[in-house]
TrEMBL record:
<dbReference type="InterPro" id="IPR051169">
    <property type="entry name" value="NADH-Q_oxidoreductase"/>
</dbReference>
<keyword id="KW-0711">Selenium</keyword>
<dbReference type="GO" id="GO:0019646">
    <property type="term" value="P:aerobic electron transport chain"/>
</dbReference>
<feature type="domain" description="FAD/NAD(P)-binding">
    <location>
        <begin position="9"/>
        <end position="298"/>
    </location>
</feature>
<keyword id="KW-0285">Flavoprotein</keyword>
<dbReference type="GO" id="GO:0016301">
    <property type="term" value="F:kinase activity"/>
</dbReference>
<dbReference type="InterPro" id="IPR010918">
    <property type="entry name" value="PurM-like_C_dom"/>
</dbReference>
<keyword id="KW-0067">ATP-binding</keyword>
<keyword id="KW-0808">Transferase</keyword>
<dbReference type="InterPro" id="IPR016188">
    <property type="entry name" value="PurM-like_N"/>
</dbReference>
<dbReference type="InterPro" id="IPR000408">
    <property type="entry name" value="Reg_chr_condens"/>
</dbReference>
<keyword id="KW-0274">FAD</keyword>
<dbReference type="GO" id="GO:0005524">
    <property type="term" value="F:ATP binding"/>
</dbReference>
<dbReference type="InterPro" id="IPR036921">
    <property type="entry name" value="PurM-like_N_sf"/>
</dbReference>
<dbReference type="InterPro" id="IPR017584">
    <property type="entry name" value="Pyridine_nucleo_diS_OxRdtase_N"/>
</dbReference>
<keyword id="KW-0560">Oxidoreductase</keyword>
<dbReference type="InterPro" id="IPR036676">
    <property type="entry name" value="PurM-like_C_sf"/>
</dbReference>
Amino acid sequence: MMTAVAHHDLVLVGGGHSHALVLRRLSMRPVPGLRLTLISPDSLTAYSGMLPGMLAGRYQRHETHIDLSRLSRAAAARWLPQRVLELDPVQRRLQLDNGDQLEYDTLSLDIGATPDLDSVPGARAHAVPVKPVATFEQRWRHLLADPSATRRVAVVGAGAGGTELAAALAQRLGATTEVQLISAGDLLPGYPDRARSLMRTRLQDAGVRIVEQAPVQRVSEGQLHYNGQSQAVDLVFWCTGARAPAWLAASGLPCDERGFLRVDNTLTSLGSPHVHAAGDCASFPSPLPKAGVYAVRQAPVLADNLLAATRGGRKRPYRPQRRFLSLLSAGAGDAVASRPPWPALAGPWVWRWKDRIDRAFMKRFENLPAPMPAAPADSDAMHCAGCGAKVGATTLNHALDGLRTAVRDDIEAGVAQGDDAAVIRWSGQHRLVQSVDYFPAFMDEPYLFGRVAALHSLSDIHAMNAAPHSALATLCLPRHHPRLQSRDLRRLLAGAVEELNRARCTLVGGHTIEGPEMAAGFTINGALTGAAWSKQGALPGQVLVITKPLGIGIQLAAWMRNVHRGPDLDATLAAMLQSNGPARDALSTLPPHACTDVTGFGLLGHLLELCQHSQVSARLDLNALPILPGTLEHIRHGVHSTLRDSNDQVLGHCEIAPALLDRPELVAATDPQTSGGLLLAVARERLEATLAALRGAGADAVVIGETVVKHHKAAATITLYG
């Protein structure tokens, strides 16, 4: 993918309401020279206004969540599905939970708040926090799995969130579930008396038992302890005592007593002009309630001030409203409205009002376009070719500094020595297996791309039953500012080395140039000590097994067009990041008769090669093909890889019943796979043991067909059925 020249890294941490709106604005008005990155562990982020309605059964999940992967794509932003563990404001560096490090020029935080589980003994071990929402939703789905079960559920915290949760629980789970709402003080503290009275009536009518002035002293297995008594419970939801993640205060930046980042009225950290914050994680000079309405109103100011920070411009102040409208869900179809000094109101019409407001907000994030290119930051710059296209020595040295490659005794000169070539002692008892792969980045995210590029290159070695030994890298970096190039190269190499080291494969050198887009490839040396696996050796009557689902090319095409769905992209990336090494190791005592990896030619293309080399034909069950979620729907909407026309030529070697010609599985069967799985021909008597070994190694091994006798002198054919 072509990359616009950039000279400034703006990193957004967290997918809260403020950042979602900032990204939406930047998707419509790209900024020349600015490179955006969003770090958020989940591809979907819940809109808090609609979450109670979803829990009560009023909304489907997709209606209540913003797809951050699609929003990032629309804004041409990199999306990193990770968590931040450390922030170093001096070095302007973030440490991520996958071992990656990310440097920034300007940083913005919108990471929300989480319930404080450490202030009450036993709460962390025995209570379920309502945030992060993704974890809470897992427990919620577990509850819904058996709606007829008798349960005792306690909600601790009677603010807006706890009150709405209790109402949703009572309505969704019905008479079989006893719901308690427990508050250390009054119900809905800070709300007008009439609003509290209206909500109290609705909770009591729904069967919720309200316990006020009852601070929880301890939580134990099956017990909640408050006011000197113990209450038997089956499940405790914790909705009280908001705190910030510990790494925020550990950064050394000024924070308040609960760990939230202190900011001035321009939403800039009091300790660093390069760090900004909005939403619940920001501690404003005049304290604000932890309410989503403030995050929404802060978004335009935050966007302006982040751009001012990148340009050295003047920032404008955020002026919070003195009062705001609060619409509380009292269960699906009912709500309470409060905005002092006017009297609180309630009823189905308030719910409809709230529903219109919430749907209007979410509509902003529907039908997102493909990314608009920013104007070139320096359109007159001329870039040399030949050796003049090499990346500069300073950039290269900075990226290599601190890179920890696997150590092997038989490598005399590699990256650490910095010689013109690698020196490897090779045993005469081993056979050398070599393979090379190189391709442009499918996603502008260096660490992720480095991992996938390394795994893809290693796959040919695994498919031949060789042990990876050493690698040479061939890399191309976009023409960014040298500071940004250095960051990209360091992260690309770090991702690649993570996978190479895991495979006991030492990076011994490489070559790096500049170009219009990021690209990477590796020449892999492998040592073969036993029998080689090959495409030659399959016999008629054997079973065909594949170890990864299909559809990677289609999913990446959907991502390029920004018509993908976040959870489907999550599944695609997980498949690409699954190494074929463990599958190869698992079959050390169960060697297949033939093996190849499924990559650019698609399943049918690589299966045809296996059949031709083995002088057999094959039968393939379309119904048995493992396919990534969402892929068939994309095919029905006309989404496919640009390599489809070329790959579809294999269909001329297939026997296909007319009724199958329109099956979307047929498109998936020719779809090019990046870092695809292994295709194996297995003897029937070894099938059960082979599947058990592969699945024990983490491979999603599936039987998809069989080999059959090839007609004398005829070309190999693949018969498709299903």
